[in-house]
Amino acid sequence: MPELTSSYVDSLAPNAASIKNGQGLVRKKSFIQLHRTENGELLFGQCAGSGKTPYECSVDFVAPENPVFRCSCPSRQFPCKHTLGLLYAYVEGQPFTPAQVPETIAAKREKAEKREENKVKQAAEGSGSKPKKVNKSALKKKISAQLEGLALLEKLVLSLIRGGLSAIDAKTLKTVQEHVKQLGNYYLSGAQIELRQFALLLGKGQDREQSYTYAVEQLTRLHAFIKKGRSYLTARSEDPELAPDVESTIDEWLGHAWQLAELKEYGLTEADVELLQLAFYSYDDQARQEFVDLGYWLDMAGGRIHKTVHYRPYKAAKLLREDDSFFDVAKIPLLYKYPGELNARVRYEEMTARPVIPADLAQVRVHAHRSFAEAIKSVKNQLKNPLSDKQPVLLLYAASLGVTENGQYVITDEAGGQLVLGDISSLAQGTLQLLPFLPPASLKGCSLLVMFEHELDQGKLVAQPLSVITDEGITRLLY
């Protein structure tokens, strides 16, 4: 069984309400029985419910990285509040009586083992088979539709450029929104999102003039995508066996949803990785029409800053599990990495947790960039690519963090190089106002996780701190 902590149990919950409800069951002393096996692989018990018969709930750690939750309650949430409450009771030190594995659970374990054996057997039998053949006819049809969609998008973009943004009226915006819908029929979901963002920028009424600069950037972004997308699709059309581009995000722009099996097939995985989350926040992405849960993690061995992204479409948001802050070190047997530059997206299927120790915080300092000039250079190199993530995040080591005479917050590197901090306007929350509350000891020899953005209307690169890390701990400024 992994080392259970409140943070780890929180990470298993589908949403904040289930965390509250699970903890509430412990406070109300709703658990009639609490048991554990001698080897600690199974926690089980009974929890009083609304009916006469208590619910039978259990959490099985026979595979520590992939716990199995079972409960006799009718809840559609998974894991339910009863199994979460069982874990919270254990974390809080409630007494669990040693007991044998119940026969019902033993039978379910046996069935699960047989299913796993069959999977391994099938995988072994298929390991020597030929690679899955590409359906050339279907691929050609899809590429043809995408090229047609690119031509339609190009015609719209060029007409908007020739007419000028000041000439865009309600009728033109309606035409843009109609094209947004049409792009979905051409398998161009990435372009669909960016075109919707363009419409949102120019649909702000009195703020429209302030949005012109960013609207121009959107058109530039779309034009770059049309050019690169057409070239890429033409190459794939001529050679259907051509492997996807694993260096850039062009496939995602073209609507491809990477499957974990694909990432593994193209070598985009890493075994036995430990990640430490340095920042987390959620926001409403109107262009995507989804809520987004975004976490930034430090690879404890490699030093790269990865991100986890969890999308919750508006229509299904209530049914989907929310991501949340994670305060332990995540031990991941197999990490899947998406194509990308700085802050490549990662995913995992299995994870165990361990508490953060002083050596982990010291490792953060080791991996932080010591030269601000070199860090900013890497940021600018990414921002030159119109299709890249426009908000790269880096870990910087600051010899000091202070305030200038005119009230600006500045961090200084070991060579004396300085970086002025600011709040990024596109983020819903500023963080500079929290810096005065930091202990004086944390203002020297600290590491900062910083998000960069080129604010076009101001003509400058803005750096906003997301968290401050010292040998004492991690202070998250964004929440």
Automatic annotation (TrEMBL):
Keywords in alphabetical order: Metal-binding, Zinc, Zinc-finger
Region feature Disordered, mapped onto this chain: 110-135
SWIM-type domain ranges (all copies): 55-91
Keyword Nucleus included in the entry's annotation: no
Pfam family, one: SWIM
UniProt superkingdom: Bacteria
Keyword Metal-binding: yes
Bias kind Basic and acidic residues: ranges: 110-122
Protein's name in the database: SWIM zinc finger family protein
Species this chain originates from: Paenibacillus tianjinensis
